[in-house]
Write a structure and sequence with these properties.
Length: 292
């Protein structure tokens, strides 16, 4: 058996086209153009690439993109002052501070300075708490994208055994919350977990967010399982995921490739969140199909 490929790139393209339509309608009906501000501190090469591609995707769907750069040695007070300005700017509906921040900055303090209604990454304590308690939240982009792919493939997730490998605030924890809210039976694994292969073999859904190249082995996968590979690892052989793709593909029912799986969904969901934030700021109903 060879698993079906979950084409995140194609799914994301469809999602972006739907967002572009809704942006055009917002402009026509309400004279509103959503705006996304992205803040980059320092010169980290990977972060610069991410920020550029986020800016390009924003403009492509008809939104306004604002990019702000601060030097790596900027005092935290300068960054906080910029966030405050963006919080108060009515043209800015979404604010994203690209992580990681330089070591002299307090990441949590900076993130929590973002107005919750503009927190399109969903990383503030308030949005994390809302998600955990089943209230309307801004949901982190990567797990939201994974959820969309899973629902598209499986329909209802109710009662399925889901294993999330990784417990970061950015991916693992919000992913677990979203799966739980969809009534999956959720296990969260991490570096101290015992018998990860055994847990994996019971999982109908595996979401791997570990940050280790080809870490999840093919013989850990339950036959027919749906495998979502969040990992992005740069190796001599190019970009690879956290799952041993070739081996897992021979066993799984469906699997995301790397690249072309979760990555494109993350950016599409950032645009989705910016549109949702814009609608909420104007008291309009949530755009359809973009929230959990
Ligand atoms: P973190 O490094 O923050 O978290 C990694 C998690 O993996 C931790 O919870 C860690 O456990 C766990 N882990 C590490 N080693 C093991 C092990 N041997 N067995 C079980 N669990 C282990 O990473 P992120 O969550 O930020 O990212 C994960 C991956 O996803 C990375 O490759 C990253 O590049 C990628 N990523 C991709 C995105 C996309 O758009 N596709 C977006 C965001 C991330 P512990 O907590 O115990 O240390």
């Amino acid at each position: 058996m060879t698993a079906e490929l979950i084409d995140g790139k194609a799914f994301a393209a469809t999602l972006r086209a739907r967002i572009a339509e809704q942006v055009a309608r917002l402009r026509a009906d309400h004279a509103i153009t959503p705006g996304l501000a992205v803040v980059l501190v320092g010169e980290d090469a990977a972060s610069s690439v991410y920020v550029r591609s986020k800016g390009k995707a924003t403009v492509e769907v008809g939104m306004e993109s604002f990019q702000h750069r601060l030097p790596a040695d900027a005092p935290q007070a300068d960054l906080l002052a910029l966030v405050e300005r963006l919080n108060a700017d009515p043209a800015v509906n979404g604010i994203l501070v690209q992580l990681p921040l330089p070591a002299h900055m307090d990441e949590a303090a900076v993130i929590n300075a973002i107005a919750p209604e503009k927190d399109v990454d969903g990383f503030t304590v308030l949005n994390a708490g809302r998600l955990a308690t089943g209230q309307k939240a801004m949901v982190p982009c990567t797990p939201l994208g994974c959820l969309m792919l899973l629902r598209d493939r499986l329909g209802s997730l109710a009662g399925l055994n889901a294993l999330v490998i990784g417990r970061s605030n950015i991916v693992g924890k919000p992913m677990a919350q979203l799966l739980l809210a969809d009534s999956a039976t959720v296990t969260v694994a991490h570096s101290r977990t015992r018998d990860l292969p055994g847990l994996c073999r019971r999982a109908d859904i595996v979401v791997a967010a570990v940050g280790r190249a080809r870490f999840v082995q093919g013989d850990w996968i339950k036959p027919g399982a749906t495998v979502i590979d969040v990992g992005i690892n740069r190796t001599d052989a190019g970009l690879v995921g956290d799952v041993d793709f070739d081996a897992a593909r021979a066993v799984a029912g469906a699997i995301t490739p790397v690249p072309g799986g979760v990555g494109p969904m993350t950016i599409a969901c950032l645009l989705a969140n910016t549109l949702t934030a814009t609608a909420r700021a104007r008291g309009l109903p949530d755009p359809r199909g973009l929230t959990p």
